[in-house]
Each structure stands twice: as C-alpha cells, then as structure tokens.
Amino acid sequence: MHAASTAVLISEVGPRDGLQSIKTIMLTANKKLWVDALFDSGIREIEVASFVPAKMLPQMADASEIARYAKTLNGLTVLALVPNLKGAEHAILAGVDKITIPVSASAAHSLANVRKTREEMVEELKRIVEFRNAHAPSIRIEVGIATAFGCTLQGLVPEDDVIWLADQVVRAGVDEAGLSDTTGYANPAQIKKLFRRLRHAIGDKAGAAHLHNTRGLGLANCLAAYEEGVTSFDSSMGGLGGCPYAPGASGNVVTEDLVFMFEAMGIETGVDLEKLFKAREALRAGLPHEVIYGMTPEAGLPKGFDVSKRDKR
Hints:
By secondary structure, the chain is α/β, with parallel strands linked by helices. The protein has twelve helices and eight strands. The protein has an eight-stranded parallel beta barrel, surrounded by nine helices.
C-alpha cells in the first residue's frame, strides 16, 4: 500500500461534467452564482466548462465567459475540458490554469466520444502540448484516461491497454494522467490494482481519480484509490453528470458525501461542509427541475460532528 496522505484535493466537476450531461441549460448568471458558492465553501479547483462547439453542447456555449469569471476568484484553479487542439486554444485564450483532455482506453468509446482513434488522440495531445509550451507554458495539462475500468460500448477494457495509453500520453508531454471510471463499472479491488499499476508505470505523473457512482460503489472506490496513494478526486455537487457518449453512464460521485467521508476520517479537504451544503441552493436555483442527489446533506451531519476537532491521523 502507498503511504496515505493526510490531505486531499477535491476537484469539483459539476459545472462541466454535470451540466453537459443534462438537457437543461443553466443560465450564465446562475453558473456564476454556483461557482461563487462552491468557491466560498473552500473548493479550490473547479472544472468550469468544456470548450467544444456550441452546436454540439449548447450547455457549454458560455465557456469562455465562465472561465474568465472564475479567474477573478483569487486562489481558485480554473480547469476546463478540451477534446482537441482547437478547444485547447480557446481555453488557453480564456485564461484557464489547467486543461484536461479525455483519452479513451476503449477503442470504441474513443471513436464515439471524440471521433478519433486512441493513436490519433495521442498525436493530438502532442500538438496541444506543443501549443501550450509555445504560448502558455505555465498551464498544466492532465489526461483523464476514460473507460479505464470497462466500456458500455466495447465491454472489457484490458488493463494492459490502459497502462500502454498512460505511458503514451506521458511520453507526449502531459503533466499527469489519471484514471476515469466513465461507465461506473469499477469495484474497489479493480481500482487498487489499476492505480497501483499506473503509479508503477508513470510514477509521480499518476493523477486524479474520476469515479462514478452508477452502481453504488463510488465512495468505496474513492477510498480504495486513496489507499493506493491518490490525493486528487473529481466529484460533482449533487451527483450530477455522466458521459453523453457512454449509454447508461450516470452519476458522478457526490461531492458532499465525498468531503464528509474524508473529513470524518480526519483527512483534510479544506472544504466547509455547512457552506458546501448551502451551495446546493445555488445549484437548485439554476436547475429547479433536475434531481439533486446526496445522502449527507439530506441526513445532516452527525450529532457532535465538529470538523475542527476531528481525529487527525
């Protein structure tokens, strides 16, 4: 087992992953209020948008405006997803701090999601890295290896394919590569094994866990990843999100539940749970007809729970 950290980074992906997976289009003003509320709770990395053509994802038509607004929040790492070089150029122009690029371990999902083969995506990555190096060398580039634990289109995704791809994207020059359970297929034993192999293969360039709760194993899988040394976790307020190009892939890990789990264990997130629960109001105001999930905010904090006095391990 890798030595466990006493602190983790919670990267909120709701404004991108959550919003692009639903039909409702949240108004720009509501997005800004939601980002404000998340930041006020102590969240320090937010995936604010996806830089894709508005005709493909009208929910992301205001990506540049939201990214520029988020940059006014001092201390916030502004993250955006880009599928290609053109998207990366727009994101960098908008001033983001970090870009994340989905590269599918599943050959079938790669064609469905970005209309490129895995090998073509690696070549696209090289172009993005080259552009970053020339125009904005301070911006970090991460890859989320999608469908790392299985694919609704292809089925089984061999572990060797995932590790091969991780090696390829690191050779292409990205700063880190994490694993994504795009379809919610993973179990804790599988998480441990693959993250262990990832760290062995690419060392300190092993990145975030992006895990889904499609089959109810989201938190268990996050804990398994943490026990293998992962310190950065993607999650979505209210559990919004999924992948529009992976049928049945619903439900990101709920940020509120994930923060509670870590804080209750004495693992620091930097997030104020009461303020995080309050931020749900901004989400509900912007999406009044969407179902919002979360066990902890519904049940409330346990009697006597005081994050300032929790056990430190």
